[in-house]
């Protein structure tokens, strides 16, 4: 009990929450990904954590929630409330610089700048998506998109024309 | 004091009752979201509207899932799976919003208490309680017809959700803002396939044209508002589907012409039967597959 009390007295819940990694991109923390929106302690000692889904159907939200609870409980925070926030909607622009470096080091080309969304009707894009991504293996800029979809909703599949290797590209959204 | 040793324990301990075997009770999509209904909005209307939008997404997601292990190439299987997953996510959010305002129909009596609202709505309503349109319910047909249907469904849904970003219901507006990002690439993906098939070989052109002929009559009941939509549109909450007709028509015409496909006559508006709970046998068959196991074992947990 003493150990727990000491831990609680010396640990910032935000620092604990910021160590939790994404279940599908374990090289990134939820903070790097921009999914962790806020960590705060209420007057009654409850730690409130706000997270936001990347995609509507992101199947990892439950695991993220559980991972955050697990980490904060283990650090001695007994009452933890993980809440979903839907607005503003997540954008890949929220991935930190650090997160982008970690993605590239992990073999995933980081996203460029997300498209600007105007309030009116969404224009149709019939040509190939204009994305560029350098090869995370050899660094060549000469890469081509194989598919706009990949193993998770947030990534596209590309191939490097220089080294011939396939790689994933985190989509701009 | 709860100190889980593993993430698995944390998942399992999130609900004392254990997890319903067919859903994800530890992951309620609106957990922590303020679901207060703004003044002047009828919660019953709002809930009914959420079912319309949610059921379209749920049923189309289920149809797309039927391509898994059957798509013409692995990349396309991944694409269709991802699009279905996005739609399933939109459905969960919308059905949860419907549940949060108490629109649960008979489902809440049939589902056990531990089953979250969105799962109760998905698994424990009969076909006549669904508010989806025939467009998303009919069989996939071949790959070309599936992609023509996806093009039409994504075009209509994108036009509606783009307007719903300004809905007076902040939850609906947030769901729509997220959905627009996803539907943008759903529609583009379908449109590019229709181009490739229509302007491809004689056989792919024939199949794409057959798909268009099969799907076009289903446009008839998409743009007629129900009373619920009319009331909510007047209140700044919903979109009158008639308002998106011209935009959708322009998009579809553009794609078909580029794809060298003949554009059929636009069908005359018809009553919105699906929105009122009238469905063909295809929906019942689809729901038998979707709901069968959950209804046989409604109390199963893990």
CATH superfamily of chain B: Ferritin, core subunit, four-helix bundle
CATH superfamily of the largest domain in chain A: Fe-S cluster assembly (FSCA)
Rg over CA atoms of chain A: 19 Å
Please report which band the strand proportion of chain B falls in: under 5%, 5-15%, 15-25%, 25-35%, 35-45% or over 45%.
Answer: under 5%
Radius of gyration of chain B: 20 Å
Secondary structure tally: strands of chain B = 0
Name the average pLDDT of chain B. 92
Organism (chain B): Geodermatophilus africanus
Pfam families (chain B): PaaA_PaaC (PF05138)
Protein name (chain B): Ring-1,2-phenylacetyl-CoA epoxidase subunit PaaC
InterPro entries (chain B): Aromatic_CoA_ox/epox, Ferritin-like, Ferritin-like_SF, PaaA_PaaC, PaaC
Describe this structure in words.
The complex is a heterodimer of chains A (173) and B (302). By secondary structure, chain A is α/β, with parallel strands linked by helices. In chain A, 24% of the residues lie in helices and 20% in strands. In chain A, the strands form 2 sheets. A 4-stranded mixed β-sheet of chain A has the order 4-7-6-5. Chain B is mainly α and 302 residues long. Chain B has one domain (42-264, 275-294): Ferritin, core subunit, four-helix bundle (Ferritin). Chain B has 12 helices and no strands. Chain B has helices spanning 7-13, 43-65, 74-100, 107-110, 117-123, 134-137, 143-164, 170-198, 202-215, 227-234, 245-258, 281-296. Chain B is globular, with a radius of gyration of 20 Å. The interface between A and B is large, with 48 and 63 residues. Chain A: InterPro entries: Fe-S_Maturation_MIP18, FSCA_dom_sf, MIP18-like, PaaD-like, Zn_ribbon_PaaD.
């Amino acid at each position: 009990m003493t150990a727990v009390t000491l831990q609680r007295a010396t640990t910032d819940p935000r620092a604990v929450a910021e160590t939790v990694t994404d279940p599908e991109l374990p090289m990134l923390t939820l903070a790097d990904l921009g999914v962790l929106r806020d960590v705060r302690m209420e007057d009654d000692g409850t730690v409130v954590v706000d997270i936001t889904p990347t995609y509507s159907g992101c199947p990892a939200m439950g695991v993220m929630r559980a991972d955050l609870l697990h980490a904060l409980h283990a650090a001695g925070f007994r009452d933890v409330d993980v809440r979903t926030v839907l607005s503003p909607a997540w954008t890949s622009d929220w991935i930190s610089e650090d997160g982008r470096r970690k993605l590239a080091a992990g073999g995933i080309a980081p996203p460029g700048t997300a498209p600007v969304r105007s309030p009116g009707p969404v224009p149709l894009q019939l040509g190939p998506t204009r994305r560029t991504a350098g090869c995370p293996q050899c660094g060549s800029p000469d890469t081509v998109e194989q598919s706009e979809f990949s193993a998770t909703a947030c990534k596209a599949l590309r191939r490097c024309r220089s080294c011939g290797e396939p790689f994933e590209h985190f989509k701009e959204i | 004091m709860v100190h889980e040793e593993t993430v698995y324990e944390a998942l399992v301990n999130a609900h004392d009752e254990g997890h319903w075997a067919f859903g994800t009770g530890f992951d309620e999509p609106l957990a922590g979201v303020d679901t207060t209904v703004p003044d002047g909005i009828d919660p019953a209307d709002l809930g009914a509207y959420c079912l319309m939008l949610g059921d379209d997404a749920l049923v189309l997601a289920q149809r797309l899932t039927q391509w898994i292990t059957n798509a013409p190439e692995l990349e396309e299987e991944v694409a269709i799976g991802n699009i279905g997953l996005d739609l399933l996510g939109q459905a969960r959010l919308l059905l949860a919003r419907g549940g949060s305002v108490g629109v649960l129909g008979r489902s809440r009596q049939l589902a056990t208490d531990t089953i979250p609202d969105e799962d109760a709505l998905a698994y424990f309503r009969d076909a006549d309680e669904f508010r989806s349109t025939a467009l998303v319910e009919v069989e996939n047909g071949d790959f070309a017809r599936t992609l023509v249907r996806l093009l039409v469904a994504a075009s209509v849904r994108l036009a509606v959700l783009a307007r719903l970003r300004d809905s007076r219901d902040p939850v609906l507006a947030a769901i729509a803002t997220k959905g627009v990002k996803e539907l943008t690439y759903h529609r583009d993906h379908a449109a590019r396939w229709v181009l490739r098939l229509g302007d491809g070989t004689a056989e792919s052109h024939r199949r794409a044209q057959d798909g268009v002929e099969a799907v076009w009559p289903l446009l008839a009941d998409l743009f007629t508002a129900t009373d619920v939509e009319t009331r909510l549109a007047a209140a700044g909450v919903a979109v009158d589907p008639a308002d998106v007709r011209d935009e959708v028509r322009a998009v579809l015409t553009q794609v078909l012409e580029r794809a060298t496909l003949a554009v059929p006559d636009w069908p005359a508006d018809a009553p919105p039967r699906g929105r009122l709970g009238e469905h063909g046998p295809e929906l019942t068959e689809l729901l038998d597959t979707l709901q069968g196991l959950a209804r046989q074992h409604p109390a199963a947990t893990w």
